[in-house]
Specification:
- It is a single chain.
- A 10-stranded mixed beta sheet has the order 9-8-7-6-5-4-3-10-11-12.
- It is globular.
- The protein is of the alpha/beta class.
- The protein is built from 13 helices and 12 strands.
- It has helices at residues 25-30, 75-91, 111-126, 145-154, 166-169, 182-194, 214-222, 253-267, 276-285, 343-347, 357-360, 365-368, 390-414, and strands at residues 2-3, 9-10, 40-44, 96-102, 131-138, 156-161, 201-207, 228-232, 274-275, 302-305, 310-312, 326-330.
């Protein structure tokens, strides 16, 4: 049994005697360590999707829990979620929090439901003096002018998933009949970027596919003038490696793919967009903390609420094994503070103390941070193994570090 911060007890789904299940939270608290409050709440407002992408971590990987989820977040769950967010903000005196509308595909929830969710949460939080920033991650297929007018009214920023050129995107972003979705997504992006709604555009999320040319992919994304681009490594781990990432292989196909883009991005005469992974690595190299879980040692400050009201960890953990993201908590019965004592949550806030010996012995440990937590899973070791992308991360960070040092020296030489 695991005793939580507010003395609730539950049976954990974590493998016994495998990190982080064997983490002694009580002993850690006795040393004076304290968890950081959550500041980002991802709401699974709809549990289904209108695309059938073959590599989706929600529908196609280890955890198939989505099959038992209600399709849409019902009003009572919305009410309890809003109360719990405001409660957490009041307890920790948070001036602001981030709420991300997610799925599945959040636009399937419909405009009335989305409006109700946002207004309910903001209404609860306004009573405790907390500002709520709202954003959405969508595949873009259903994004139209009516939705954009609503999101403008509600001040919801919009991130869109796009994997590059039409050919690149349509390799994997597919409808159930096998047809690609690039035409619909590019139409939606034009509505978002070419008219009065550009201020709502948060950026583009692009999953790396090594079959696609990196520079063609990057340049295709730039055509939509995104304020930021987030290149994501395909989700995988030591038990289920991502494409062309053989465990223990010294080859670095993902780093090589990204380095081509980094050189063009870094060498551009004018700034075109922020590339989140590159920007965060450069921040870390300059001594600033990371603002993403992909790299660095910053504590995880994010929680997920499923459509049925379950409080979960990052849904990316669903790529590891059945139940990997579960906590056993529910917004109806538990405050978010209850999760702050959950071993897996604590592990994701411990920084270097949660890393295994291979990572702590690495000269790039403080920048890499072991990589994304879900990518560390290895049967028998839990999440204390290095990232399955370890060679790629080492190569990419080393390259960016060397290039940054050369550029800095060159600029100093001109002064």
């Amino acid at each position: 049994m695991c005793r939580l911060a507010n003395n609730h007890e539950l049976t954990t789904p974590l493998p016994e005697n495998v990190f982080p299940a064997n983490l002694d939270v009580a002993e850690l608290l006795a040393t004076g360590w304290r968890p950081s409050p959550f500041r980002q709440f991802i709401l699974k407002v709809h549990s289904r999707c209108d695309l059938a992408c073959p590599g989706c971590y929600v529908y196609e990987m280890a955890d198939q829990g989505w099959r038992g989820q209600p399709r849409q977040m019902p009003p009572d769950v919305v009410k309890h979620t809003a109360f719990r967010i405001a409660e957490h903000a009041r307890t920790h005196r948070l001036a602001d929090v981030d709420v991300i509308l997610h799925g599945g595909e959040p636009l399937l929830a419909g405009p009335e439901s989305l409006s109700h969710i946002v207004r309910t949460i903001r209404g609860e939080c306004s009573e405790v003096g907390t500002r709520v920033r709202v954003s959405m991650q969508t595949n873009g297929v259903r994004l139209n002018e009516a939705y954009l007018r609503l999101f403008d009214e509600l001040d919801i920023r919009i991130g869109v998933s796009l994997d590059g050129t039409a050919a690149a995107h349509d390799r994997t972003r597919l409808f159930a009949n096998g047809r690609g979705s690039h035409r619909q997504v590019s139409r939606a992006l034009r509505l978002l970027t070419d008219g009065p709604f550009h201020h709502l555009f948060a950026g583009i999320l692009c999953t790396i596919d090594l079959r696609n040319n990196p520079l063609e992919t990057y340049r295709a994304l730039l055509e939509f003038d995104p304020p930021s681009v987030d290149f994501l490594l395909p989700h995988g781990n030591w038990a289920a490696p991502p494409p062309e990432r053989e465990p223990l292989s010294p080859l670095t196909p993902y780093a090589d793919w990204l380095i081509e883009i980094f050189d063009e991005w870094r060498g551009a005469a004018t700034f075109r967009t922020e590339i989140r992974l590159f920007h965060e690595i450069l921040r870390l190299l300059s001594g600033f903390p990371s603002r993403t879980e992909a790299v660095g040692l910053s504590p995880s400050l994010m929680m997920v609420v499923e459509t049925n009201g379950d409080i979960e960890q990052s849904d990316i953990l669903k790529s590891a094994y059945e139940g990997a993201s579960a906590t056993g908590l529910h917004v109806r019965d538990h405050p978010f503070d209850a999760a702050l004592g959950f071993p897996a949550i604590v592990a994701r806030q411990l920084g270097a103390a949660a890393l295994g010996p291979e990572c702590t012995a690495c000269d790039l440990m403080e920048v890499c941070g072991g990589g994304l937590y879900a990518h560390r899973f290895r049967p028998g070791a839990g999440f204390r193994a290095p990232s399955v992308y370890c060679p790629d991360l080492y190569r990419l960070i080393s390259y960016i570090s060397d290039r940054h040092a050369r550029d800095t020296a060159r600029l100093k030489g001109r002064v």
